[in-house]
Specification:
It is built from 4 helices and 9 strands; from the N terminus they run βαβββααβββββα. By secondary structure, it is α/β, with parallel strands linked by helices. It has 2 domains: 150 residues, FAD/NAD(P)-binding domain; 43 residues, no CATH class. The strands form 3 sheets. Strands 5-2-1-9 form a 4-stranded parallel β-sheet, covered by helices on one side. The longest helix has 14 residues.
Length: 220
Amino acid sequence: MSARPRSICIIGAGAGGLITARTILNQKWADRVVLLEKRPNVGGVWDYERNGGTKTSAMYHSLRTNLPKEVMQFRDFPFPSDLPSFIPRAAVQRYLEDFADNGKLREYIKFNAEAVKVERIGDGHWRVTWREHHLRDLSGFYDSSFFSEEFSGVCICNGHFDVPHIPEEFRGLPNVVHSRMYDGPEPFEGQNVCIIGTGPSSADIAYEVGSMDTLSPIFL
Protein backbone atom coordinates (compact mmCIF):
# COMPACT_ATOMS: atom_id res chain seq x y z
CA MET A 1 0.00 0.00 0.00
CA SER A 2 1.98 2.96 -1.30
CA ALA A 3 -0.17 5.77 0.14
CA ARG A 4 -2.34 5.57 3.21
CA PRO A 5 -6.04 5.69 2.27
CA ARG A 6 -8.00 8.36 4.10
CA SER A 7 -10.97 6.05 4.62
CA ILE A 8 -11.72 2.35 4.26
CA CYS A 9 -15.10 0.62 4.19
CA ILE A 10 -15.20 -3.02 5.30
CA ILE A 11 -18.26 -4.99 4.26
CA GLY A 12 -19.10 -7.71 6.77
CA ALA A 13 -18.36 -8.06 10.48
CA GLY A 14 -17.71 -11.78 10.56
CA ALA A 15 -14.31 -13.29 11.25
CA GLY A 16 -12.78 -11.85 8.07
CA GLY A 17 -14.15 -8.36 8.58
CA LEU A 18 -13.17 -8.21 12.25
CA ILE A 19 -9.54 -9.23 11.75
CA THR A 20 -9.30 -6.90 8.73
CA ALA A 21 -10.58 -3.99 10.80
CA ARG A 22 -8.27 -4.68 13.71
CA THR A 23 -5.24 -5.00 11.43
CA ILE A 24 -6.00 -1.74 9.61
CA LEU A 25 -6.59 0.08 12.89
CA ASN A 26 -3.50 -1.33 14.61
CA GLN A 27 -1.29 -0.55 11.63
CA LYS A 28 -2.88 2.90 11.22
CA TRP A 29 -3.45 2.29 7.53
CA ALA A 30 -6.45 4.65 7.39
CA ASP A 31 -7.80 7.71 9.14
CA ARG A 32 -11.39 6.45 9.04
CA VAL A 33 -12.68 2.86 9.15
CA VAL A 34 -16.34 1.89 8.73
CA LEU A 35 -17.67 -1.67 8.96
CA LEU A 36 -21.08 -2.42 7.44
CA GLU A 37 -22.86 -5.42 8.96
CA LYS A 38 -26.39 -6.30 7.90
CA ARG A 39 -27.09 -8.23 11.09
CA PRO A 40 -27.58 -6.72 14.55
CA ASN A 41 -24.44 -8.41 15.89
CA VAL A 42 -20.92 -9.41 14.89
CA GLY A 43 -20.10 -12.98 13.87
CA GLY A 44 -21.35 -13.24 10.31
CA VAL A 45 -22.29 -16.79 9.43
CA TRP A 46 -21.72 -17.88 13.06
CA ASP A 47 -24.47 -15.60 14.35
CA TYR A 48 -27.26 -18.13 14.77
CA GLU A 49 -30.48 -16.19 15.07
CA ARG A 50 -34.16 -16.92 14.77
CA ASN A 51 -36.70 -14.36 13.67
CA GLY A 52 -40.27 -15.48 14.21
CA GLY A 53 -39.34 -19.15 13.93
CA THR A 54 -37.21 -18.70 10.79
CA LYS A 55 -33.46 -18.90 11.14
CA THR A 56 -31.53 -16.13 9.47
CA SER A 57 -28.08 -17.65 8.99
CA ALA A 58 -26.53 -20.80 7.56
CA MET A 59 -25.88 -22.14 11.06
CA TYR A 60 -27.98 -24.97 12.45
CA HIS A 61 -28.72 -25.56 16.10
CA SER A 62 -26.43 -28.53 16.78
CA LEU A 63 -23.51 -27.56 14.52
CA ARG A 64 -19.97 -28.18 15.74
CA THR A 65 -16.81 -27.09 13.95
CA ASN A 66 -15.24 -29.47 11.44
CA LEU A 67 -11.82 -27.94 12.10
CA PRO A 68 -10.05 -27.88 15.48
CA LYS A 69 -10.19 -24.55 17.26
CA GLU A 70 -6.39 -24.48 17.29
CA VAL A 71 -6.32 -23.77 13.54
CA MET A 72 -9.34 -21.44 13.58
CA GLN A 73 -8.17 -18.95 16.20
CA PHE A 74 -6.41 -15.68 15.52
CA ARG A 75 -2.69 -15.85 16.24
CA ASP A 76 -2.66 -13.55 19.26
CA PHE A 77 -6.19 -14.24 20.53
CA PRO A 78 -6.60 -17.93 21.44
CA PHE A 79 -9.79 -19.72 22.32
CA PRO A 80 -10.24 -20.54 26.02
CA SER A 81 -7.97 -23.48 26.83
CA ASP A 82 -10.72 -25.45 28.59
CA LEU A 83 -12.68 -25.91 25.36
CA PRO A 84 -12.34 -29.14 23.35
CA SER A 85 -10.73 -29.01 19.92
CA PHE A 86 -14.05 -29.33 18.10
CA ILE A 87 -16.42 -26.81 19.56
CA PRO A 88 -20.12 -25.92 19.19
CA ARG A 89 -21.14 -22.99 17.02
CA ALA A 90 -22.09 -20.92 20.09
CA ALA A 91 -18.48 -21.04 21.34
CA VAL A 92 -17.24 -19.63 18.03
CA GLN A 93 -19.82 -16.85 18.18
CA ARG A 94 -18.78 -15.94 21.73
CA TYR A 95 -15.14 -15.94 20.63
CA LEU A 96 -15.85 -13.48 17.81
CA GLU A 97 -17.87 -11.26 20.13
CA ASP A 98 -15.01 -11.29 22.65
CA PHE A 99 -12.54 -10.48 19.87
CA ALA A 100 -14.62 -7.49 18.79
CA ASP A 101 -14.92 -6.26 22.37
CA ASN A 102 -11.22 -6.78 23.10
CA GLY A 103 -10.26 -4.70 20.08
CA LYS A 104 -12.97 -2.09 20.71
CA LEU A 105 -14.23 -2.71 17.19
CA ARG A 106 -17.95 -2.20 17.77
CA GLU A 107 -17.57 1.57 17.70
CA TYR A 108 -16.57 1.30 14.04
CA ILE A 109 -19.48 -0.95 13.04
CA LYS A 110 -22.80 0.12 11.55
CA PHE A 111 -25.19 -2.70 12.45
CA ASN A 112 -28.33 -3.53 10.46
CA ALA A 113 -26.55 -1.89 7.52
CA GLU A 114 -26.60 -3.89 4.29
CA ALA A 115 -24.26 -2.87 1.48
CA VAL A 116 -26.21 -2.74 -1.77
CA LYS A 117 -23.81 -1.11 -4.24
CA VAL A 118 -20.09 -0.44 -4.65
CA GLU A 119 -19.02 1.67 -7.62
CA ARG A 120 -15.72 3.09 -8.83
CA ILE A 121 -15.87 6.87 -9.13
CA GLY A 122 -12.39 7.70 -10.37
CA ASP A 123 -9.11 8.74 -8.79
CA GLY A 124 -8.98 5.38 -7.03
CA HIS A 125 -12.06 6.16 -4.93
CA TRP A 126 -15.26 4.20 -4.36
CA ARG A 127 -18.82 5.10 -3.52
CA VAL A 128 -20.54 2.61 -1.21
CA THR A 129 -24.31 2.64 -0.81
CA TRP A 130 -25.97 0.81 2.04
CA ARG A 131 -29.42 0.33 3.50
CA GLU A 132 -30.02 0.63 7.24
CA HIS A 133 -32.98 -1.18 8.80
CA HIS A 134 -34.67 0.38 11.82
CA LEU A 135 -37.41 -1.23 13.90
CA ARG A 136 -40.42 1.03 13.48
CA ASP A 137 -42.44 -0.20 16.46
CA LEU A 138 -43.20 -3.30 18.51
CA SER A 139 -45.20 -4.76 15.61
CA GLY A 140 -41.93 -5.94 14.08
CA PHE A 141 -42.05 -3.78 10.95
CA TYR A 142 -38.87 -2.11 9.79
CA ASP A 143 -38.14 1.16 8.06
CA SER A 144 -35.19 1.38 5.68
CA SER A 145 -32.99 4.35 4.92
CA PHE A 146 -30.30 4.55 2.23
CA PHE A 147 -26.90 6.16 2.70
CA SER A 148 -23.88 6.68 0.45
CA GLU A 149 -20.33 7.62 1.29
CA GLU A 150 -17.09 7.95 -0.63
CA PHE A 151 -14.14 5.82 0.47
CA SER A 152 -10.60 5.52 -0.79
CA GLY A 153 -10.58 1.77 -0.18
CA VAL A 154 -13.10 -1.09 0.18
CA CYS A 155 -12.56 -4.53 1.73
CA ILE A 156 -15.13 -7.18 0.79
CA CYS A 157 -15.40 -9.55 3.77
CA ASN A 158 -18.93 -10.88 3.39
CA GLY A 159 -17.99 -14.57 3.17
CA HIS A 160 -19.20 -17.33 0.85
CA PHE A 161 -22.08 -19.02 2.66
CA ASP A 162 -24.83 -16.43 2.98
CA VAL A 163 -26.56 -16.91 -0.38
CA PRO A 164 -27.34 -20.54 -1.27
CA HIS A 165 -26.73 -21.87 -4.78
CA ILE A 166 -29.79 -23.83 -5.87
CA PRO A 167 -29.69 -25.32 -9.40
CA GLU A 168 -32.48 -24.07 -11.61
CA GLU A 169 -34.04 -27.51 -12.03
CA PHE A 170 -34.54 -27.83 -8.25
CA ARG A 171 -36.13 -24.46 -7.62
CA GLY A 172 -39.78 -24.55 -6.64
CA LEU A 173 -39.90 -28.31 -6.13
CA PRO A 174 -41.71 -29.48 -2.98
CA ASN A 175 -39.70 -31.03 -0.15
CA VAL A 176 -36.37 -29.77 -1.48
CA VAL A 177 -34.31 -28.08 1.23
CA HIS A 178 -30.93 -26.40 0.82
CA SER A 179 -28.45 -27.04 3.63
CA ARG A 180 -28.58 -23.33 4.49
CA MET A 181 -32.16 -23.80 5.72
CA TYR A 182 -31.45 -27.01 7.64
CA ASP A 183 -31.86 -26.66 11.40
CA GLY A 184 -32.30 -30.21 12.65
CA PRO A 185 -33.31 -33.74 11.61
CA GLU A 186 -36.84 -33.75 13.06
CA PRO A 187 -38.72 -32.71 9.86
CA PHE A 188 -37.24 -35.73 8.03
CA GLU A 189 -38.46 -38.42 10.41
CA GLY A 190 -40.33 -41.17 8.57
CA GLN A 191 -39.30 -39.94 5.12
CA ASN A 192 -37.12 -41.17 2.30
CA VAL A 193 -34.13 -38.84 2.28
CA CYS A 194 -31.60 -38.16 -0.46
CA ILE A 195 -28.72 -35.81 0.30
CA ILE A 196 -26.84 -34.38 -2.68
CA GLY A 197 -23.22 -33.44 -2.12
CA THR A 198 -20.21 -34.80 -0.23
CA GLY A 199 -19.01 -31.72 1.60
CA PRO A 200 -18.90 -31.11 5.36
CA SER A 201 -22.52 -29.95 5.50
CA SER A 202 -23.84 -33.07 3.77
CA ALA A 203 -21.80 -35.33 6.06
CA ASP A 204 -23.10 -33.58 9.17
CA ILE A 205 -26.69 -33.64 7.95
CA ALA A 206 -26.46 -37.30 6.89
CA TYR A 207 -25.23 -38.24 10.36
CA GLU A 208 -28.04 -36.34 12.08
CA VAL A 209 -30.83 -37.43 9.74
CA GLY A 210 -29.54 -41.01 9.88
CA SER A 211 -30.18 -41.01 13.60
CA MET A 212 -33.90 -40.53 12.94
CA ASP A 213 -36.40 -43.18 11.89
CA THR A 214 -36.09 -42.67 8.15
CA LEU A 215 -37.67 -45.05 5.65
CA SER A 216 -34.65 -45.76 3.50
CA PRO A 217 -30.88 -45.38 3.46
CA ILE A 218 -29.45 -41.93 2.92
CA PHE A 219 -27.53 -41.44 -0.30
CA LEU A 220 -24.77 -38.87 -0.81
